[in-house]
Amino acid sequence: MAVGRNVAAPLLFLNLIMYFIVLGFASWCLNRFINGQTYHPSFGGNGATMFFLIFSILAAVLGIVSKFIGGNHIRAWRSDSLAAAGATSSVAWAVTALAMGLACKQIHIGGHRGWRLRIVEAFIIILTFTQLLYLMLIHAGIYSSRYGPGYRDTDYGTGDPLHKGGAGHVPVAGTRV
């Protein structure tokens, strides 16, 4: 089993759990914010809160979806599954990094922020770095096939003689193939 696969699998599971926690807490906070209940002792907030919560929920949903696709890649561990896992993980990381910037802005503005809001801020900041680490681990095959599925594998289509022009391919006269 590849080294990158052994490290990426537990990190994938950890990120999945953290994204679910962010989704739950951010959804609760956004519901309180929309209802105008910012006086709740475990909430609070400031001018950046609405934007931060929206992008946190978006990052959590994209992160959860990317972890399901990443789980398929960890199971198959091939270059063709890496394309989907890498693309969705890159998008999830980009939106998580954007949410981290808003978390930093919210922390910088200050004011009363309840414990649930601080948990969302902390998890988004942590997820930005763990998601980047996960993204680098699944792409480690670029440097060596020992760490991941190498990008140079070209034997995926050899079993289909119709598309390879192999021995079983006989063109029929009068048709376009």
From TrEMBL:
TM region positions: 7-28, 48-70, 82-102, 122-143
Record keyword Ribosomal protein present: no
UniProt KW Transmembrane keyword: yes
Record keywords, A-Z: Membrane, Transmembrane, Transmembrane helix
Pfam short name (any one): AWPM-19
Name under which the protein is recorded: Uncharacterized protein
